[in-house]
Structures are given as structure tokens and as C-alpha cells.
Write a structure and sequence with these properties.
Blueprint lengths: L10 E2 L9 H10 L5 E2 L9 H9 L5 H16 L2
Parallel strand pairs: 1-2
Length: 79
């Protein structure tokens, strides 16, 4: 975590939610630049709906959650 937080790279939520401690995941997602985080799931090993629900259960601020869930990817891909 200490080497990750410089904000120079995009990160995603794949594999971390449900595997790492929720408090640590929440801390990273709340402190990393919100425009550099992408939602990801571990599909096909788990249902995407489970990944979305686990993400929502973290209780991030709504603007940050919306950016992570779809807005950042849309901006990155130009759609």
C-alpha cells in the first residue's frame, strides 16, 4: 500500500474486494486519486453482481463510487 499511493498509475478493484481487509480497501479507494481508479470484477470466477454489491457495501461517498464504477472508464475510453 505505501508504494501504491503516489497516484501515477491507474488501479482497479479486481480481486481486492472480498480478499483484502475491507478497512484497507476502503482506505486505499478513499485516498487514491479518484480519477485513477477503475472498477473491476473477478468474472468469470464470481458473478459481476456480487462484485458490484461488495463494492457498494464499502460505503464510499457517492461521487467517488460513481467515478470508480463507470465514469473513469468512460473518460479513459473516450465514450
Amino acid at each position: 500500500e505505501k508504494y501504491l499511493m503516489d497516484g501515477r498509475a491507474y488501479i482497479d478493484t479486481s480481486y481486492s474486494i472480498g480478499k483484502a481487509d475491507d478497512a484497507q480497501v476502503r482506505r486505499i479507494l478513499n485516498n487514491y486519486p479518484q480519477d485513477k481508479i477503475l472498477f473491476g470484477s473477478d468474472s468469470p470466477w464470481d458473478a459481476q453482481s456480487n462484485a458490484v454489491q461488495a463494492f457498494l457495501d464499502l460505503g464510499l461517498p457517492s461521487e467517488r463510487a460513481e467515478r470508480i464504477l463507470w465514469k473513469n472508464a468512460a473518460e479513459l475510453l473516450g465514450i
